[in-house]
Amino acid sequence: MQIIPVIDLLDGLVVAAKHGERDSYQPIKSKICSTSLIEDVLNGFLAIYPFNTVYIADLNSITNSGNNHFLIDNILSQYKDIEFWVDNGKEVQDLTENAATNYIPVTGSEYQNTEGTNNLHSALKNTILSLDFFPKQGYAGPKELLNNSTLWPQDIIIMSLEKVGKNAGPDIKRLEVFQQKHPDKNFIAAGGIRNEKDLLNLYKIGINHVLIASALHSGVINTKAIKKLTSIAP
Fold this sequence. Notes:
Elements: E1 2-10, E2 13-16, E3 26-27, H1 38-48, E4 53-58, H2 59-62, H3 69-78, E5 83-87, E6 103-108, H4 120-124, E7 128-134, E8 138-140, H5 143-147, E9 155-160, H6 172-181, E10 186-190, H7 196-204, E11 209-212, H8 214-217, H9 223-230
Parallel strand pairs: 1-4, 1-11, 4-5, 5-6, 6-7, 7-9, 9-10, 10-11
Antiparallel strand pairs: 1-2, 2-3, 7-8
């Protein structure tokens, strides 16, 4: 099982995401780092385990309130052995090349527009698609992108924002539905993962990749647990 740490950047600091309510996000308070600076948080993750993949969300860029491009580019150049999945709120047709070989763009459904893109599958195939689900609202984005799996790339994040930071467990039911309907795709769970038991339950339904923040910062998922979990599945 692959565990992928999450870094949410807002106004130059790493913040604690909760329920998708971005206006209320506050700088992270963590047992694994002493500040909310991105370098400190990343080094805290790496002290737990030598992760080879990290997810970064540029919340300023996603919400059209500036960006953290300089910080992210600096991290990409410093940690060349780590692959960074970066969500910067771009529509797939507006994605630009990044010179860094360890940069993989994430395209969130919430800000996609399928109109005006002649070959959406081709545009998405070298990205990681995030299907975004919010509290109350549910799925956010073009229905075509949710319902037409022929458009999807191989790797798809099921982003359950209503579960993020809530300590309520992952959305097993939703993930299981996607996994059963599309067994040829690689689904990545995001939101609500509390502990080792949650991860084992995800593994049982065929989910082998997870995005985690809170449980790493709290120390609930530690080095011992990660070594055990990474040995049970690819």
